[in-house]
Amino acid sequence: MATEVLDEPELEHEAREATWTLNFGPQHPATHTTLRLILELDGERIVKATPDIGYLHSGFEKLGEHLNFNQYVTIVDRKNYISPPMNEVAWHHAVETLLGVDLTPRCQYIRVIIGELARISDHLLCTGAAALDLGAFTAFLFAFNLREQIYDVYEEMSGYRFHPGYTRVGGVLYDFNDRVIERIRGVTKSFTSVYADMEKLLFKNRIFLDRLRGVGVLSKADAIAHSCTGPIARASGVTYDLRKDQPYLAYPEFDFEVPYTTEGDSWARFAVRMEEMRQSCRILEQALAKLPSGPVNAPIAEKFPMPDKATTYNSMEGLIQHFELIMPNRGIETPRDEVYAAIESPNGELGYYLVSDGSQTAWRVRTRPPSFVHFSVFPKVIQNHLLADVVAVLGSLSIIAAELDR
Amino acid sequence: MNNSTTDPATDHEATLRTLAQTLGEGAFTTSRFRANLRLHTSPAKLLDLLRTLRDQCGFNLLSEVGGVDYLGYPGRTGARFEVHHVLRNLETSELVIVKTGVDDPDPTLPSATPLWPGANWMEREVFDMFGIRFSDHPDLRRILMPPEFAAYPLRKDYPLRGRGERHNFPRLMRGDS
Predict the structure, then answer these.
(1) Cβ–Cβ contacts within 10 Å for residue A181, how many?
(2) Is A13 contained in some domain?
(3) Is there a domain that residue A1 lies in?
(4) Touching check for A353 and chain B: CB below 8 Å?
(5) Does any CB of chain A come closer than 8 Å to the CB of residue B90?
(6) Which residues in chain B are closer than 8 Å to A48, comparing Cβ atoms?
(7) Residues 370-389 of A with CB under 8 A from B
(8) For B81, phi and psi rounded to 5 degrees?
(9) Within a domain: residue A16?
(10) Long-range pairs of A25-31 with CB within 8 A, sequence gap ≥ 24
């Protein structure tokens, strides 16, 4: 589009002499999080973009070597703070893979439900904020209104609105009660109308379409070569989804589709996310309809689940188990081995490489952060676009700096 | 889509056969835990192994690169550091982990960036956190820590609360800028 106008040969030659450098961030309203770009510009055309990250580096991986498997859940919450339950599911999925734990059917369903709620919440922020950055303010408000309802679900199920810290090794903190389920039904009910509103506001919005179509194109070969996963890879035609291809939890029992397109531009990434939200809503409805009854935590005889308050105070076994798990010189025994386990997070493959030395504190916790991988593609896809396209592409990649820097 | 590869007994059979034919038996050893297949190799043979996995076995997605410091790990006799490359086959959904041991005093590995440009930042992070160098890496700089930082924070001999870097961090006042 506009780049072709700038590419007249004589103009280009003169402009080459005078490229200028612009510092973008680390504090800038359009980055939404703390990240910095050094842009070398030819007029308004980007010749080279150099990301500079690490402003939010907080040593989360080092902390993982000092907190036990249950304590560390509060830290993983703070990685991708847009969808905390998904981080919890990913973390305890890795721990349970290491321990070889079989979750109860109810627990698997509950984790699917909180994971899909987190996916909707993440995509609402990403699509809403992408629209906000490009001037479509109203869609953002509709999206955030629904995110509030999802926060209400978190609050009802765990007591915390923002960082629920809800999962535990072999189970969850509290079982779902009727009020939680009622609130989740409320979310699925309002989702339909919110989606319809966003669709009406954005899908035929000429300005929005023109700002996204053909901007930041990532080809299928590049997406694979640059290790992209999740909606970003699926927008480029890589039909890989861990929920289908390496099924975990109860995902094989649900009927849902994996949307993909082959265009690979910012619009495609936006459209894939919008469709993924609808599929997540389908999963939620199915999961609520056939939520199994029965115990939610693995049986206490398994030695690793944290007993709930009633069991701790009212039974000898519960009290002993609580003591064993809480005392620092005791705790559970884990295999002295290592494991890589990943799940499909809203942004792509979220994996943990977990090394255990036999104690209940990890020897090494390596996070495979999707934001980190996707931000490394940014200089490639933004090249030769205009300065104003930076926010469009950043918004479509959904970079969460807390996860980027950890 | 593909659920048939999760059985560890039949898993990766074709891959292991191809690798043994191309590289010979001595290039790697294998171990398994849960559903993970690990190939242990040495820095000299790493690139050949990765290339064979990518070109002949279809492991075309480099999912993740990370490092582990085993200093003081109970019962450890091998090299101090290990770098793992997690590869995925997008057709068959198989996953394989390539583990390469590197030792002090000068831990160096060949870079995987010629094979996968996506390895660039992940290798920079391993360098930043462990001080493991990647030869032929196009841009081996610190990525998360500031460039002045002297230590490698994820090494086991680096304390959790640091060595006072935070307190001695050079502060730029408004007047000096």
Answers:
(1) 16
(2) no
(3) no
(4) yes
(5) yes
(6) none
(7) 372-373, 375-377
(8) -110, 155
(9) no
(10) A26/A52, A26/A55, A30/A133, A30/A390, A30/A391, A30/A394, A31/A394, A31/A401
Indicate yes or no: CB of B90 within 8 angstroms of CB of A224: yes
Residue A340 belongs to some domain of the structure: yes
Torsion, Cα of A68, A74, A75, A81 (10° steps) = 160
B68 shares contact with chain A (CB less than 8 Å): yes
Range of the domain at A146: 60-405
CA distance A56 to A58: 6
For A178-184, the CB contacts below 8 A with 24+ separation are A180/A153, A180/A156, A181/A288, A181/A291, A183/A149, A183/A152, A183/A153, A183/A156, A184/A113, A184/A117, A184/A153, A184/A284, A184/A288
**What CATH number is associated with residue A266?**
1.10.645.10
Rounded CA-CA distance A2/A44 in Å is: 10
* A285 and chain B in contact, CB less than 8 A: no
Judged by CB atoms closer than 8 Å, whether chains meet at A227 and B153 is answered as: no
Q: What is the pLDDT of residues B128-172, one digit of tens each?
A: 999 999 988 888 888 888 888 888 999 999 988 888 877 777 788
Statement: B21-135 belongs to CATH 3.30.460.80:
yes
Between CA A138 and CA A147, with CA A144 as vertex, the angle to 5 degrees is: 155
Full-model pTM: 0.88
Segment A239-260, tens digit of pLDDT: 888 888 888 888 999 999 999 9
Asked whether the bond before A26 is cis by omega within 30 degrees of 0, the reply is yes
Distance from C-alpha of B98 to C-alpha of A264, rounded to nearest angstrom: 30
From chain B, the residues in CB contact with A244 under 8 A are 1
pLDDT tens for each residue of A328-379:
777 777 888 899 999 999 998 999 999 998 888 889 999 999 999 999 999 9
Average pLDDT over residues A75-98: 90
Q: E strands, A280-405, where? A: 338-345, 348-356, 362-368
CA-wise closest residue to A212 among A254, A274, A153, A256:
A274
d(CA A390, CA A405): 20
ipTM value of the model? 0.87
- Count the domains in chain A: 1
Beta pairing, strands A45-52 & A36-42: antiparallel
Instruction: Compare CB distances from B62 to A57, A98, A227 and report the shortest one's residue.
Output: A227
Least confident residue range of A84-88, A205-209, B21-25 = B21-25
The sign one gets for the Cα dihedral A389, A391, A392, A398 is positive
Q: How confident is the model over B92-132, as pLDDT tens digits? A: 888 899 999 998 888 999 999 999 998 999 999 999 999 99
Quick check: A228 and B118 CB within 8 A?
Answer: yes
The domain ranges of chain B are: 21-135
Closest CA to A347 of A320, A368, A361, A322: A368
Q: Which residues contact A157 (CB under 8 A, 6 or more apart)?
A: A114, A164, A166, A174, A176, A180
For CA atoms A178, A184, A187, A188, give the dihedral sign: negative
Q: Where are the alpha helices (DSSP H) in A78-136?
A: 84-99, 105-133
